């Protein structure tokens, strides 16, 4: 089984207009004062526990490897963000919607991610309430307004410039929008490259807004090979030992366009460093070479029901697989903690093929 990305030509609306003033690379321990996270269920720490939605994970066996403590994370254990925070030696940022996330708790960052959220406001509506990208941006600005009152203007400017922002979006715009023609019109309205361009234009607007708010270090992972997740394999439209190639192929424009957008933003915005995370390649490498990473099961979920354990995702009190570290996928949609750990380390330490143009560790050393 090989994972392939289609090739598309993309013209972006954002054009280079200012030569990047290259930030200075300094040596030393990677340090950021705070991490702000926007995204979907891949990085939701429990925001959806506080809203009316079907997209929740606040029940066992979710959290089974967090001392049997379900927190709302869509994982058997830690998420990509939790593991990245460990590498950065900072606490994993708390959920914005948690009433206790206030005062000094916000000083080292906040996580706004919401399961079922997409770049487009309508993506994921089939699950009920969720904080879309645009709403998460509003929530971020609320936090920044509070932080502004907690330090001097100069300190606040420096704090923002050194903080890390991570955005994890795009999956739901496909899984819970474009690939659900019975509920959404997008696949009839747009060809795959046109839909990707729509997503990129919306994303670019918000990425520019982050710069306008004073934030300068932005990490943006692309979309994984969604045709390989148990949910898509369970559709039964590909041979049992293969990913759904037709799904993976339509993601090429989005991921390649996001990488191009990073180049253009870095050229246009003085002092900024936007970084593209090649999630597609990393997951593809794991799926193509599972034994090298200690995995034995790549085609079905550890917790789920039906074909590939992906037709119905993990249910309350369901008994999951015992050998979770050998599975790439925890449920119908999400990776295990073990897979998340590989993603975090590749983002933090990896070469430009994993994180472009620099990795997260290098990014934090730029001033």
From TrEMBL:
Under which name does UniProt file this protein? GDSL lipase/esterase
GO molecular function of the protein, one example?
hydrolase activity, acting on ester bonds
**Pfam families referenced in this protein's UniProt entry, alphabetically:** Lipase_GDSL
Signal peptide bounds? 1-21
Which UniProt keywords are listed? Signal
Q: Cross-referenced InterPro entries, in alphabetical order?
A: GDSL (IPR001087), GDSL_esterase/lipase (IPR051238), SGNH_plant_lipase-like (IPR035669)
| Species per Swiss-Prot/TrEMBL record | Arabidopsis thaliana x Arabidopsis arenosa
Protein family: Belongs to the 'GDSL' lipolytic enzyme family.
């Amino acid at each position: 089984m090989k994972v392939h990305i289609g090739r598309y030509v993309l013209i972006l609306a954002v054009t280079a207009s200012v030569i990047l003033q290259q930030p200075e690379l300094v040596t030393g321990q990677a340090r950021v004062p705070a991490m702000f996270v926007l995204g979907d269920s891949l990085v939701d720490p429990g925001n959806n526990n506080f809203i009316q939605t079907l997209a929740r994970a606040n029940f066992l066996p979710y959290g089974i490897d967090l001392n049997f403590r379900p927190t709302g994370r869509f994982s058997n254990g830690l998420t990509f963000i939790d593991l990245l925070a460990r590498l950065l030696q900072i606490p994993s940022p708390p959920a914005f919607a948690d009433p206790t996330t206030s005062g000094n708790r916000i000083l080292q960052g906040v996580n706004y991610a919401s399961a079922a959220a997409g770049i487009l406001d309508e993506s994921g509506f089939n699950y009920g309430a969720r904080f879309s990208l645009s709403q998460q941006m509003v929530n971020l600005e609320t936090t920044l307004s509070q932080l502004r009152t907690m330090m001097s203007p100069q300190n606040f400017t420096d704090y923002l410039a050194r903080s890390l922002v991570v955005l994890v979006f795009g999956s739901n715009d496909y899984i819970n929008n474009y690939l659900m023609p019975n509920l959404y019109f997008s696949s009839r309205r747009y060809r795959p490259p046109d839909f990707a361009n729509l997503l990129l234009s919306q994303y670019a607007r918000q990425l520019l807004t982050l710069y306008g708010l004073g934030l300068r270090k932005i990490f943006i992972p692309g979309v994984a090979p969604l045709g390989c997740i148990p949910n898509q394999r369970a559709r039964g439209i590909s041979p049992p030992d293969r990913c759904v190639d037709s799904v993976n192929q339509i993601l090429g424009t989005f991921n390649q366009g996001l990488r191009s957008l990073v180049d253009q933003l870095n050229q246009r915005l003085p002092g900024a460093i936007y970084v593209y995370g090649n999630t597609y390649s990393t997951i593809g490498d794991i799926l193509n070479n599972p034994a090298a990473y200690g995995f034995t099961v790549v085609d079905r979920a550890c917790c789920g029901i039906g074909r590939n354990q992906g037709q119905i995702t993990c249910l309350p009190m369901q008994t999951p697989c015992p050998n979770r570290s050998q599975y790439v996928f925890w449920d119908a949609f999400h990776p295990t903690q073990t897979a998340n750990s590989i993603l975090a380390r590749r983002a933090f330490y990896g070469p430009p093929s994993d994180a472009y143009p620099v990795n997260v560790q290098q990014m934090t050393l730029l001033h």
